[in-house]
């Protein structure tokens, strides 16, 4: 009960918490890393705040550790697509990937928190995986948005507008929609047909792996007007349904499609209340792995207004 009200208070204080974060870490050389931890903590509070079952410090620590693991594994490593060019690194990465589930279960078994019997262990494991997925996506949405505003200060000024939070949030929503179009955090979605089927691209057999890339679809000249232009003035309908698919489409569409962007808006709103993003160097290229991260360590920080 005590824990519940603490979580409630944290939710309520989110803007203050984010503002404090901006003052404490806005200038850090590894700002993106700090930002990732902020997002993880806020997501744990937001999504799991209604139930104290999972959001124990042991579990958030477990998520952090698993994130470190997942960072070491990139897509080609996991799929092992090129056995002829296999390397120690790839072998290690495959080992890590296959032990991923075991380690989550291990953490759950050892966390020593018998407080909540209403969530089965199998469900706890799923919740952690879901949190991991969602956290990475929200973090990258915030990071790419800050990079875009940092590299194109006019856009940052436009977002700040008249300084009223209402306008800022509305404009941030537009920034996020376009960011998710050009930099969808999950650039590849995989499907495996349960029976042979005919698709516009040809016949696909049961069990074959199909990859749909929101990244490619979102930048396709046949589907978009000036796809490479970051344009916050696209019509609202543009973002409803195909070809806009940062959350996937259909039955397996992201369950956090509403909550994710909402949290990203809140975080960016808190960060930009008294700060402006400043970026240097070239705009980073995206690195397409399990998620769409910026290549290298992008130079981005927050400057007090
Ligand atoms: C901007 C933020 C987010 C983006 C861009 C995003 C994107 C995606 C995408 C592309 C998928 C795959 C959909 C498919 O296979 O068709 C997915 C699935 C999923 N996402 Fe998100 N996501 C975001 C935030 C979140 C959040 C906040 C949560 C929850 C805390 C979450 C939980 C999930 C879950 C559980 C699935 C699997 C759904 C299923 O397989 O049925 N996501 N997300």
Automatic annotation (TrEMBL):
Pfam families according to UniProt: p450
Transmembrane segments: none
Keyword Heme: yes
Keywords carried by this UniProt record: Heme, Iron, Metal-binding, Monooxygenase, Oxidoreductase
Family matches, as CDD domains: cytochrome_P450
Keyword Iron assigned: yes
Family statement drawn from the similarity comment of this UniProt entry: Belongs to the cytochrome P450 family.
UniProt protein name: Cytochrome P450
Species of provenance: Blastomonas aquatica
């Amino acid at each position: 009960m005590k824990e519940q009200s603490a979580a409630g208070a944290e939710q309520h204080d989110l803007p203050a918490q984010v503002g404090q974060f901006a003052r404490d870490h806005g200038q850090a050389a590894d700002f993106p890393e700090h930002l990732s931890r902020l997002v993880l903590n806020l997501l744990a509070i937001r999504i799991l705040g209604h139930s104290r079952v999972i959001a124990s410090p042991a579990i958030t620590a477990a998520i952090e550790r698993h994130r470190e693991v997942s960072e070491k594994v990139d897509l080609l490593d996991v799929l092992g697509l090129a056995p002829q060019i296999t390397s120690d690194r790839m072998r290690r990465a495959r080992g890590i990937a296959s032990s991923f589930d075991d380690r989550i279960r291990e953490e759950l078994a050892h966390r020593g928190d018998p407080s909540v019997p209403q969530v089965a262990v199998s469900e706890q494991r799923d919740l952690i995986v879901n949190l991991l997925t969602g956290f990475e996506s929200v973090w990258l949405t915030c990071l790419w948005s800050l990079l875009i505003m940092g590299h194109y200060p006019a856009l940052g000024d436009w977002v700040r507008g008249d300084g009223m939070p209402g306008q800022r949030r509305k404009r941030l929503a537009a920034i996020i929609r376009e960011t998710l179009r050009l930099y969808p955090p999950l650039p590849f979605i995989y499907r495996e047909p349960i029976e042979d089927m005919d698709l516009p691209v040809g016949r696909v057999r049961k069990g074959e792996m199909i990859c749909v890339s929101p990244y490619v679809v979102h930048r396709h000249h046949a589907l978009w007007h000036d796809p490479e232009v970051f344009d916050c003035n696209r019509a609202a309908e543009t973002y409803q349904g195909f070809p806009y698919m940062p959350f996937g489409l259909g039955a397996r569409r992201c369950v956090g499609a509403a909550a994710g962007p909402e949290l990203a808006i809140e975080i960016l709103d808190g960060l930009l209340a008294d700060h402006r993003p400043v970026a240097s160097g070239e705009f980073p290229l995206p690195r397409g792995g399990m998620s769409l991260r910026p290549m290298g360590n992008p130079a981005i920080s927050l400057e007090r207004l």
